[in-house]
Amino acid sequence: MKVEQEAQVWLYAAEHYRDSLMAIVGDAVASYRRKPGLDSLTRIYKQDVGAVAFAVLERVLPSADLPRTDSSYIPVREQLRSHLIYQVLKRLVEEEAVPVELRDILFSIDLGL
User: Distance between CA atoms of 102 and 99, rounded to whole angstroms?
Assistant: First the structure.
């Protein structure tokens, strides 16, 4: 998923869920099961996901003893990041809280495109 699309998902999630976003992200993290093998480290930037989503992610995501020298981003493994965005987007689509473009992105992920 492109960064711009991911940013849209987080902005819609922050707007739609407000106070319950932390519980939703917490559930997504709890349901995550890491697959064996190497996994790239990525960065989630505050300016990309918005202040509300960034604060939630900062509190909920496991730190895994990764050094944070800069507070403008959160280091997170690629598989976990993909899992989180998929779970949040899936829930938003089920509740019809996103535009058609984001719904189509979920369908393309499900189809492996």
Answer: 6
Q: Which domain holds residue 47?
A: 3-111
**Overall number of domains in the chain:** 1
- DSSP of 19-49, one letter per residue? GGHHHHHHHHHHT--PPSS---EEEEEHHHH
pLDDT tens readout for residues 42-98: 999 999 999 999 999 999 987 655 666 678 899 899 999 999 999 999 999 999 999
Nearest to 87 by CA among 63, 95, 35, 54: 95
Alpha carbons 113 and 103: distance in angstroms, whole number: 14
pLDDT tier at 113, thresholds 50, 70, 90: confident
Measured between alpha carbons, how far is residue 110 from residues 83, 105, 106 in Å?
Answer: 12, 9, 6
**What is the pTM (predicted TM-score) of this model?**
0.88
